[in-house]
Amino acid sequence: MQRWTTILFLTGLSIVLFAIITPLVLGQSPMLVGKLINASAVNDTGAANLVTAVVLAYRGLDTLGELAILFTAATAIGIILGTTDKTQTTSSPTAGFIVATAAKVLFPLLLVFALYIILHGHLTPGGGFQGGAVLAAAFFLLTLADSGNNIKHKVTQVIEALAGTAFIVLGLVSFALQGVFLQPWLDKGELGSLFSAGSLPLLYLALGLKVGAELANLLSSLANVEK
Amino acid sequence: MMIWDDIFLEVDFWINIVSIALIVIGIYGIVFSQHLLRMVFGLGLLEAGVNILLVKAGYQKEAIAPIVTQASDTMMSNILAATAQMVDPVPQAMVLTAIVIAAGVQALALSLVIRIYKKYGTLDSHVLFLAMERDRHLSLNQKD
Question: At what angle do helices B36-57 and B89-120 cross, to 10 degrees?
Fold first, then answer.
């Protein structure tokens, strides 16, 4: 009996979803705001990557809310699992010589790659979130390869707090200068050069460090649960 | 051009099917699975389906990625001509947001699963229900 109601429910759900989605034809975007943003983003922000312009300039407040959600999730995980800041974990052995060495070789490369993605977020695909994920992976790789190499919760928490504060301070400075919170400020510079787009690269740097520290914190507290 | 349009309709249809299938399988996993870990996986599938739909909403025919590449063209008219052919950047930014939030939500769900496993030693929701009921009765009896 339950099986039949399940199938009925799922069929009905798919039909409803299909009816909602079908008017959305591929290639005919129903939204008009995208064209306006495409036309004015380069003038407004000076960023070559228009997605960055949307994330940090047009929807900067939304990104701040997103950071708040990520922070809440990380805090809740800390509360649920309890931060065990033990440097010695005797239970799990190292992954072996080859993997440990490969992790050490990869670590600086990953670090450089992450910083490249973060700093060029306003020019090429990428940015704070993507680079932050790579940054967290770089530090977590060491922990995975050698369980003695724990991520220090205190250090990551300090980095996270400073980066989060920097994001809000950048917004407040724009509020003091222009009267609008999180409005891009500073000189726009030449389109396509590294030092361009005003305060957007600074915002992305703060965001990348915050996301990286938060994800590293999160992964290590998930990995360090007592068995 | 006619053949091209037909292919477009076909692709459109299959993107719809795939995203709806992911959403429905995800909801099925969340609602009807007994294992708690499968509920978390269902959540992941649901998010993937919704993200495909969002990206699809921003697609335009014969458009390019929303990044200005000709840095030497500082002429404003050139830049405007280039940006007019780009896809809508708003859905991409929204999917970026959604992916990051999904990562946070799934990590939170997994930590709850770990916590439950440490307390009860099982992830079967029926067994867990009975064990939690028993615990509740025990705590009620202790109060009396």
Answer: 180
Amino acid, single-letter form, for residue B74: T
What tokens appear for A125 in the block?
């695909």
Q: In this complex, is the C-beta atom of A125 within 8 Å of any C-beta atom belonging to chain B?
A: yes
**Could you tell me if B1 lies within 8 Å of chain A, comparing CB atoms?**
no
Model confidence over B37-65: pLDDT tens digits? 999 999 999 999 999 988 888 787 777 88
Which residue among B12, B88, B101 sits closest to A26, beta carbon to beta carbon? B12
Decide: helix, strand or coil at residue A124: coil
The answer, yes or no, to whether ipTM is higher than 0.90 is no
How far apart CA B69 and CA A152 sit, in angstroms, is: 40
CB A121 within 8 A of CB A49: yes
Q: Chain A: nearest CA to B74, how far in angstroms? A: 7
Confidence (pLDDT) at A112: 94
Contact B88, B58 (CB under 8 A): yes
Six-digit token pair at B124?
Answer: 């079967």
Taken in order of first residue, the domains within chain B and their CATH numbers are 2-62+77-143 (1.10.287.3510)
3-state class of B109 per DSSP? helix
Both structure tokens of A127 = 């940015």
Report the 10 Å Cβ neighbour count for B86. Answer: 20
Are the beta carbons of B56 and A225 separated by less than 8 Å? no
Per-residue buried b or exposed e for A13-49, using 16+ beta carbons within 10 Å of the residue's own CB: ebeebeeebeeeebbebeeeebeebbeebbeebbbbb
